[in-house]
Amino acid sequence: MRIGALEAGGTKMVCAIGDETGTIxxxxxxxxxxxxxxxxxxxxxxxxxxxxxLGIACFGPIDLDRxxxxxxxxxxxxxxxxxxxxxxxxxxxCLNVPVGFDTDVNGSLLGEVTYGQAKGLGDAVYYTIGTxxxxxxxxxxxxxxxxxxxxxxxxxxxxxEDDPMPEGICPFHGACLEGMAAGPSIEKRWGKKxxxxxxxxxxxxLEAYYLAQCMVTTxxxxxxxxxxxxxxxxxxxxxxxxxxxxxxxxxxxxxKNDTVNDMDHYIVPASLHDDQGIMGCLxxxxxxx
Amino acid sequence: MRIGALEAGGTKMVCAIGDETGTIxxxxxxxxxxxxxxxxxxxxxxxxxxxxxLGIACFGPIDLDRxxxxxxxxxxxxxxxxxxxxxxxxxxxCLNVPVGFDTDVNGSLLGEVTYGQAKGLGDAVYYTIGTxxxxxxxxxxxxxxxxxxxxxxxxxxxxxEDDPMPEGICPFHGACLEGMAAGPSIEKRWGKKxxxxxxxxxxxxLEAYYLAQCMVTTxxxxxxxxxxxxxxxxxxxxxxxxxxxxxxxxxxxxxKNDTVNDMDHYIVPASLHDDQGIMGCLxxxxxxx
Lengths: 289, 289
Known about the structure:
Two copies of one chain form a homodimer. Chain A has 289 residues and is an alpha/beta fold.
C-alpha cells in the first residue's frame, strides 16, 4: 500500500511516501511557519502521489478523542499560530483518504514497536529528550490516550543538593523533568551547549540522575518491557550507562523482574536512525485503513 | 452465573459467592496464616457451592505473565511463608473451574470500573493508601500488567522542608510514596495513629502534599479519566479537598482538559463501601469463562 507520512513538528514538517513494511520511498522537509502558509505546501507534496492513507504524528497538545468536536485538532499549543488548527481534518478533506492521527512521540514509539528493536513488545515507552521532553506510551498493544495523552515530560523531580540551578526553568513547574533535563535546561544551568560539554562528567552525572528518576517512575507506574530514549540530548551516548546505573541504585532491588533488571536491553537508545517518527506515521496511516 | 470470589490479602482472606451483576450472596473471612493451613480452609469454603468460575485478587508481587512457568504464583513477597505459592493453580486444579487472577488493587479497580462510579471509563487508576500503598491501572479498557504490574506505591517524592521525618520509612526507597504517606509513616512521623489526629491540620496538609504529587504524576504518566483513592488512610475524608487543591497548585494550569480539571469528579473516594475488591473478583471470575 502507498502511504503518506507527515511528522508534524514545531520547527519542521517532514513529509514522506512509503509503505506498511516501513520502507520510505521519498522524503522532504518544510519549515513550520503558519497553518495558512504551511498546510498548502504539505498538501501540494502529497497531491498526485496516489497515497491510499495518511498518517500524521503531530506536536501538541492535540485532541485524540474521537467523540470530541475538535478531534484531530492541535489545541492549546504555545505556538499560537497553530492553536485550534484542524490538521487531521484538513488532509482528510483535501486528500479524501483515511487519516491516522496521534502525538509526535506516540508516532516515534509506534515506529520502534512496529519496525525497530521493540517489535512485538506491546508494553513500551518512548521518551524524546530534546528542546523539551515528550513521552509516548503503549500498554497491552495500544497507544495510551486516556483523558488526553500522557504528558510525562512534566513529572516532578527530586532536586539534587549540588544542582547549581535547583529552581529549574519550566514556566509551569520549575523543577519538572523538562525544566531540569531538556537541552535548554542543561545549557542554562552550565552556560554552554550540551554538545560542548561532552567531557564534563558533572554535567552528565546530574543529567543521568534526573533521567534515572524518570526511569524509576516509568517502571513503577507503567510496568513497560522496554524504555526507549531518543532526542538530541540522548545523542550523548555516554548517558546510557550512567542512567542505567542510577536507575538500579534508585530502585534498590525492589523490582525483581528479569525484563527490568536486564537493564542493557531495558533502557535503550532509539534504533531507527531518527526515522522512527516517519516510520510510525506509515503505521498510523496503515492502521487508519 | 454463580461465581466464587477470593480477595487474598496479607492479613485476611475474604471469600464470597455472587454473580456477574456484582450481587454478593454470601461472604466469609479467614486469617492469612500459611499456604498449608489457609488454602485448604478456603477450598472448603468454595467446595460444594456449585461455582462456575473463581476470581482471585491477590497480594503480591504476583506473576501475571501467561507465558511464564510461574503464572498464577505469589512470587517474591516479604510474607515469606507465601513465597512461590501457586495460588491460582491450586484452586484451578482443586475446583476444576476457570480462574481469573490479578493483583488486589487491580481487583478493586475492576470493581469500581464495572459496578461503581467509574463504570464505562476504560482509563482509570485506583490507589489504596493503607498499611502500604498499591495501585491498579486500567488503560483503554484493559488492566495494565506489562513486564510485571505497576508498583506505583513506590514512586519517588519531593520531600517538603518542614517534614519532621524527611527520610521516610520505606526499607527500599526511604522517601517514596509508601515510605512517606502510608498509615505506618503517618504514625511514625507524628507519634500517634492517624485516626487520633483527625483535627491536626498540619498532619493532613503534609499528607495531602504527598498524595497530590502522586495525583500529578499519575495524571501526567497515565492520562486517566478518574483516580479513585481507597484504603484506611482515605477514610480521613477531609483529605480529598486538600489533595485536589494541592494537585491543582502543582499542575499549575498546565493540563487544559475538562475531565482532569473537574477535580471533584476526577479525584474521588471509592464508591462501593469496601466491597470493590470482592466485586472485582466476581468480574475477574466472569471474564475467565
